[in-house]
Amino acid sequence: MAHFSTVRQMEQSKKIIMGIDPGTNRTGYGILEVGGRKPRAVVIGDIDLHKLTDPYDKLAYIFKRVGALIDEYQPDEVALESPFFGENVQSMLKLGRAQGVAMAAALSRGLPVAEYAPTRIKQSITGRGSAAKDQVAAILQSMLGITYDPKRLDATDGMAVAVCHYFTTCSTINALAGTARAKGLGGKLKATSSRGSSSWEQFLRQNPDRELKSETPARRTIKKPIK
Fold first, then answer.
1. Band of the pLDDT at 170, cuts 50, 70, 90?
2. Residue 223 lies in a domain
3. Is 209 tagged catalytic?
4. How confident is the model at residue 13 (pLDDT cuts 50, 70, 90)?
5. Is 33 an annotated catalytic residue?
6. What domain range is 124 assigned to?
7. Catalytic pick from 21, 46, 77, 157?
8. Most buried residue, 5, 26, 82, 108, by CB count within 10 Å?
9. Whole-prediction pTM
10. Could you say which of 46, 77, 81, 157 is catalytic?
């Protein structure tokens, strides 16, 4: 009875989640409304920074636009994608700064903030941490009924962050599963269902044209120390 009561409370109380994919050329965002039996996409978009050449002007504009979006849509929580720790230190530094100012815009308004690694976000949506951007976008289109521009996938990446946060913290399965959080959603505990990470495979069976036959996951080279 307690479980059903928890689920009923979740369905009655609506929450707005803002997901942000920070970038120095485009910063994607998605606004997700949750609280019913099915999450609803409010809006997806991106902040275009191509016309700004000065890196500090870009940071100021990200802070300003993220703050304006928060004021307009009044999210209860903000989730951001954390920078990928690759070999390009300069790129990581730039992304870290973009994430920092977006985070500061949320914190300045007293909102709770969460961070998720890129692989965890992809895994929560598709079941694969190495999924491509368009695979994530295709799943979100099927899940939320959104339309997107294949040339501007930063917007769907922003929505993916919001959905990942929803799966991790707010979804009905969490109320029922308690501490047995599904590993297929990016957690560290044992999966509650053997189907928890099969969402992308099932989607491909239903939509075989979506699979990228030539796709190969990026490989990271580990350099051996010089003796």
1. confident
2. no
3. no
4. confident
5. no
6. 2-210
7. 21
8. 26
9. 0.72
10. 81
pLDDT at 225 over 50: no
Rounded Cα distance, 216 and 99, in Å:
28
Paired tokens of 162: 């919001």
Q: Would residue 169 count as lying in a domain? A: yes
Residues 6+ apart with CB under 8 A from 120: 129, 164, 186
CATH number at residue 81: 3.30.420.10
Lowest mean pLDDT across 72-86, 101-115, 130-144, 177-191 = 177-191
User: 70-74, 119-123, 169-173: which has the minimum mean pLDDT?
Assistant: 169-173
Whether residue 202 lies inside any domain: the answer is: yes
Residue by residue, DSSP assigns 25-48 as SEEEEEEEEESSSS-EEEEEEEEE
Residue of 33, 46, 77, 154 with catalytic role: 154
In a domain, 224, yes or no: no
Residue 210 near residue 203 (C-beta atoms within 8 A): yes
Instruction: Tell me if residue 115 is catalytic.
Output: no
User: In whole numbers, what is the pLDDT of the chain averaged over residues?
Assistant: 77
The domain total for the chain is 1
